[in-house]
Amino acid sequence: MTPLEMPAREIARQVQSGALSAVAVVETHLARIAAANPTLNAYTEVTATRALAKARDIDARRMRGEKLGALAGVPFAVKNLFDIAGLPTRAGSKINRDLPPAETDGALVARMDAADAVLLGALNMGEYAYDFTGENVHDGASRNPHDTSRMTGGSSGGSGGAVAGGMATIALGSDTNGSIRVPASFCGLFGLKPTFGRLSRHGSFPFVGAFDHLGPLARSAGDLALAYDAMQGPDANDRACAQRSLEATLPTLESGIGGLRVASLGGYFGAGGEAIVYEAVRRCAEALGTKQTVEMPQVHRARAAAFVITNVEGGQLHLERLRKRAADFDPATRDRLIAGNLVPGAWYMQAQRVRSWFQGEVAKLFEKFDLLLAPATPCAAPALGQQTFTLNGQEMLLRPNIGVYTQPISFVGLPVVAVPLHGLGPLPVAVQIIAAPWREDLALRAAHFLETAGVVRAPVAL
After folding, report:
1. What is the pLDDT of residues 150-188, one digit of tens each?
2. Cα–Cα dist 173/109, whole Å
3. Is 155 a catalytic residue?
């Protein structure tokens, strides 16, 4: 197995032991980026000089007998809304390229670096994270490594493309309404959207303060847990970040599923999409030993409220940019942000009331169950440029509706692990494993169990 296919834990183990040098790992990945990125378009900036300097430092410290971090030599990259010292944080936009370079790394980039992971660069994304497709009018579309004529999903499209294409072992993305879970589904990867407030957002460009989450994409549940544990902890610089110390998930990852109460979500989540996504849920449910199906109440109202809050908060965030540089936006982003500024305040207040009510109703489900299963997307990756698709038997606009199953979950901040199934059709799809707040450990345990059982996997598309 080459470093391009190795799990992060194996890379770290070999670098720590000296069986593999960090420089060799980085050089292998830089060569892969040089060969594949012109087609996949996942990276918008490659930080080769920084990566090689970090790798040399890791190897030198090992030679001196110093203890290395848990992610020693593991190559990672970040969606270009994370601050990287020395680069402007473009957030997928044309406008942000005029910003001065970031003076320091964002909080999660710094925590990965402190664990001796090696940053390879910044990744393509939908403009200002308002996107589910992975297409970008300024940088071009990121392309799906499993079929380059298909979407990666968004808005963390470059994050999905880089990991699935063997150009990074781990990538960080953001998820406001589904932007980690949608690329995980379309690119066939594992993705973790933690509980709202779990991981610091300091040093990242925002979209919707009420819903923004940051988290990792990887090719195994173990690699998600490794990165997630390295990034946990309070941060006074992010007011939404919970004052919770490290709650490590790696020690219990292999504890199995004994005692876990699992059900599939039916009703809203059990209809409307393609047959392949329900077959994926059925296979995961069978492997987890459950035939139970439950329903969340009024999910369509929750999603409508999520749309309102997203439009209003996103529109307000960009109001001055819309006034001064409207022509520099992607029209598809601009028009929705303008619309958000025209939504009556009473609608926003009612949407927040719906959110509080829905949060209480969902909490009741977790009195009976530990984990809930649902499709991540209603279909496999659509073709690049595709504008519409069939949902609930009707032709619908694709861009705002790919997140039909992810949006209601992030609306109430629940932790989710997306797990990929390959072989059900020409392209992969993912299933959401949803847990109660702060129980990422349970979702990761179930994901690892499914991976060990051979139900889910994330091969590199080389």
Report:
1. 999 999 999 999 999 999 999 999 999 999 999 999 999
2. 11
3. yes
